[in-house]
Design a protein that fits this description.
The complex is a heterodimer.
Chain A: H1 3-35, H2 40-54, H3 63-70, H4 76-110, H5 128-144, H6 148-174, H7 189-197, H8 199-222
Chain B: H1 4-33, H2 57-70
Classes of the chains: A mainly alpha, B mainly alpha.
Chain lengths: 226, 71
Amino acid sequence: MDFKNVFNLIRCFIVEKFKKEFTPLIVIAVVVPILSDFDPIVFVYPFLSILFAARIFKNLQNSQSAIAYMMMPASPAEKTMANFLLVSVIYPLVCALFSLIALGVDVLFFKFFQDYPYTMPQDIGVSLGFFLLLAIFSFASVYYKKHSFWNVCLWGVVMVLFILIYSGLFCYIFADNNIFSADLSMLNEPINHFFDSYPIVSSVVQLLLICFFWGMTYLRLKETEV
Amino acid sequence: MKKKTNIILFSILGVLFLLYNVYLAIFVHKYNQLPQIENTPTIWEEESVPESDCFQQDSLNENVNSISLKF
């Protein structure tokens, strides 16, 4: 992997995406906190980053732009690395920067005499779970190509419903007492207790999942045909 | 063409589903070993409240009459 190539790709993606992707989202990141009382760091910035991740492989949507994308003089690994840096580092930083600027403007000109209503930057939800979400949405964008955001949401709803119905039926059939309606929440307790007692295990699992989804993104990009 | 990512994804999902079944089986087995309360009476089957504790309109009327008589 040539890091000069990766750097050039990032520059190319930023120039290409700036008008359509960065500008509207930066405008939202600036305007929403000024017009409303939403905390930009908690509400706006993670949501925008996830939306951006869900559209990162937008070029693969139609065959013409997909051919141009595939013909770029870089290997799939370099493209994946460039997209990883864009999604996980550059875009959240840009969003956080503009959110902070908006917050400063908001406090200086509109809420100067009021109490400071926002969480401080050290409370930014930069956690492994957030990066896991970004990895999942990036993988979905190369997997589905179109409507990846809604596909992931749909998959989430289907999985939750399936797990609820399946585990409910399992307990209803095999448990001596009927715990179908009353104690289904007990199912999570051992897992939650385990992860609460060993937080390092939870972090390691999340890190592994992040690596897994970015690896799958690389594999999927490698086998994509136009 | 069968894509490698599909095979990896669905095999992992299958393994996770099997593991979840094992987890459920252990959970249900442990739940069945807990001491169970059999034939727990529902709220309607519980012992009825003795009549003496109930509010009775007749006794109230009698009391009211007695008070009025005292007047």
